[in-house]
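Hi X.,

You mentioned you wanted examples for the new student's onboarding notes, showing what a folding record looks like when two proteins sit in one file. Here is a clean example. The first protein comes first, with its sequence line followed by its structure tokens.
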Amino acid sequence: MNNHYDYIISGAGCAGLSLLQRILLQPALSSKKILVIDEKPKIINDRTWCFWEKENGLFEDIVHHSYDEIAFASNFFSNRIPLNNYRYKMIQGIDFYNAVMQYAKGFANVEFKYEKVKKLTTENQLAIVETENNTYKANYIFNSILFPGTINTSSNKTYFLLQHFKGWVIETPNAQFNPSVATLMDFTVAQKEGTTFMYTMPTSTTTALVEYTLFTKDLLQPIEYENALKKYIEEDLKISNYTIQHEEFGIIPMTNHPFPLHEGRVVNLGIAGGQAKGSSGYAFQFIQKRTKKIVANLISKNHPFYNQSFSDKKFRFFDSVLLQVLHDKKMNGDEIFADIFKKNAIKTVLRFLDNESNLLEDLKIMSSVPMKIFLPAALKQIFK
């Protein structure tokens, strides 16, 4: 058995399959011998990815629904906000998996194996994957598996919160929703656990994803998520007659942990590569930017490596400051986000959250929040 490949993709989730799709679309790379390895096939709808963008993206054909307006609600500020040139888009996990896997079937040089990855190393200019049963070698491994112990949650330089959420896709017998408006954040729910909001994504007048989301140090008991969803649907959305069509649960680390972009010939992607934004948890578009850069380097330089830019470091600093304020409970998240959305144009907010804002836009965002709270937090980060 020839266990040597040009590239091994370790983890067949959003990051790994996004990279695979981009590689196969490039004639200069599409004939490379590629192994995609994960513990089990992606055959269930286990994720929903939402993001905003101006143009049509790589996965436009599988966008499940999109919105030209969002709603923001809190006890400090509420508004419906047109997105102007942006669209807020939803992709279902199963549609994404099926689309990439179907495309990859047209390439005899791509293999899929389902084994649990135990260890990744670099030795003698080769990257090595050890599974429970086999060893595979490649010129480069692209890894999106977040191994236990990767994040040091006890370091005094690292802030660590969990973004955890329970979502129901509900269907009603009568029209209840406006499918052109996505409720991005509704902070009018109880904040006793920490930063807490509801997220509602209608896909028709009778169907919507309703999600209960928290930024806290600890998870809740399963029944607490369900009770919160029931209460919100019945009391806030005023819906008493509905059926649950689908459920999903997720956990995203919100941290300023310095995830390495690569270790030897192992290149990190997704959460393992720091592509989940520390202050918001959004990851889909950051994964697309990362995989696009990697593919460009493979073509032009014959390697996937690049260093963090000044802009990357700047936004990591901003994320660290916000995480510190939330972690130390200096200010509630609902009030922070209300200030940001109230005092800035939506274009500025979205560019800032996308790590694309310029200095003037950064200053506008920073001036939106209380300096007496955020300036000491910023100084603390600088002198750490």
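Then the second protein repeats the pattern, sequence line and then tokens:
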Amino acid sequence: MKRVEIQINTINDIRNFVDLASRCSFEVDLASARYTVNGKSIMGVASLDKSKPLTVLIHTDNDEECAEFVAQLKPYMVG
């Protein structure tokens, strides 16, 4: 499992993130503090507190797939 910190602020950011996650064949979760939701669920992602960075949890052992997904997250990555 790989972890990546992102910041999403607008409804368009949420839509784009969910769209990217939904294209993945592996599981993608999004965590904020003690809450973790399915990254492919627009309602789940929208329910999180987006005032602070969120942690993307990428559940795959395929390094190539993971690297491709992380590359697509670059515009949202923190630090």
